[in-house]
């Protein structure tokens, strides 16, 4: 029996690696084209707002990059039915329910909660709760207030409102949250959760993070839940089940971009970097904490406020400015 290969077999073997190479090249081109189209599509959809204005004495740049992340409690875009479902009432004022500093540099990300009742100086308006800055002068006054209170120069600003937050969580198919022992029930926010890990849709997640009246820690307990939810959203959003299938990724990105407003100097690349830093935090690679508090007195005409521990707060902000490890009680 002849052992010679059939005519054409040797040529077919030579062509096989070439076909594989061309196939891989075509796949890479398709992936690159898909990524580029997403990039330009996202850039065209990105919504911006004025967040920074020049002013005398503005802090100079520090090491690394600092974001101000804000959750607005504006009810202006909500229907009466949505207000009832979200348990947010009918107040038409503009305040910030969530204020966080995200720093990232060589030492990894750090997420710092600023209690919304922090008693600070608001330029041109005397001392008040920090969340009043947004109501008095929008994002520009809030960013200036945060910069002057912390000594940090902010590089980026991102804001999401109630309804946008709910839509983002729902676009992910919900998130998984572990409720501490004792559960959480708060008639004001609508929270009613037994202890243990459980899935939450957008409305449930909002009720969970807004609860504070039934929490013995009040606003300080709420900021911990806010960081917990941010980590849960980042963990879900950076999972393969969302990132890989276009039919999941594109709707999620569209919903997120519709929910967000960023400063005019922030583009898609910066937002992508923000997402990666959030993913590191959800993987417990970074540090999270709250601005150190000295007390929660009542101020006539203002109400119950949060007063910072000035020495410990300065150490925290100095660490952020110098991109060194922050004093923290650990990830939570």
Automatic annotation (TrEMBL):
The chain crosses the membrane at residues 20-42. Residues 95-237 form the Cell envelope-related transcriptional attenuator domain. Keywords: Membrane, Transmembrane, Transmembrane helix. Pfam families: LytR_cpsA_psr (PF03816). InterPro entries: LytR/CpsA/Psr_CW_biosynth, LytR_CpsA_psr. Belongs to the LytR/CpsA/Psr (LCP) family. This is LytR family transcriptional regulator.
């Amino acid at each position: 029996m002849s052992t010679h290969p059939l005519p054409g077999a040797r040529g077919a073997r030579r062509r096989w690696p070439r076909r594989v190479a061309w196939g891989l090249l075509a796949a890479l081109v398709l992936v690159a084209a898909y990524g580029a189209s997403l990039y330009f599509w996202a850039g065209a959809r990105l919504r911006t707002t004025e967040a920074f204005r020049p002013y005398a004495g503005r802090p100079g740049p520090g090491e690394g990059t600092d974001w101000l992340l804000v959750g607005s409690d504006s009810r202006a875009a909500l229907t009466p039915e949505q207000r009832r479902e979200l348990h947010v009432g009918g107040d038409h004022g503009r305040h910030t329910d969530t204020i966080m500093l995200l720093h990232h540099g060589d030492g990894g990300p750090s997420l710092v909660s600023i209690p919304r009742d922090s008693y600070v100086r608001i330029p041109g308006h005397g001392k008040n709760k920090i969340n009043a800055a947004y109501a008095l002068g929008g994002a520009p006054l809030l960013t200036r207030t945060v910069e002057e209170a912390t000594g940090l120069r902010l590089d980026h600003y991102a804001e999401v409102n109630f309804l946008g937050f709910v839509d983002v969580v729902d676009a992910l198919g919900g998130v998984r949250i572990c409720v501490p022992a004792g559960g959480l029930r708060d008639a004001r926010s609508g929270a009613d959760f037994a202890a243990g890990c459980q899935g939450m849709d957008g409305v449930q997640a909002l009720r969970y993070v807004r609860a504070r009246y039934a929490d013995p820690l009040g606003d300080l307990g709420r900021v911990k839940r806010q960081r917990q939810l941010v980590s849960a959203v980042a963990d879900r959003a950076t999972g393969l089940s969302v990132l890989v299938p276009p039919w999941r990724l594109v709707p999620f990105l569209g919903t997120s971009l519709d929910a967000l407003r960023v400063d005019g100097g922030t583009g898609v690349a910066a937002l992508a970097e923000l997402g990666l830093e959030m993913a590191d935090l959800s993987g417990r690679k970074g540090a999270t904490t709250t601005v150190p508090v000295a007390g929660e007195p009542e101020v006539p005409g203002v109400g119950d406020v949060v007063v910072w521990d000035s020495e410990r707060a300065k150490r925290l902000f100095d660490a952020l400015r110098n991109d060194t490890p922050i004093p923290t009680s650990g990830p939570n």
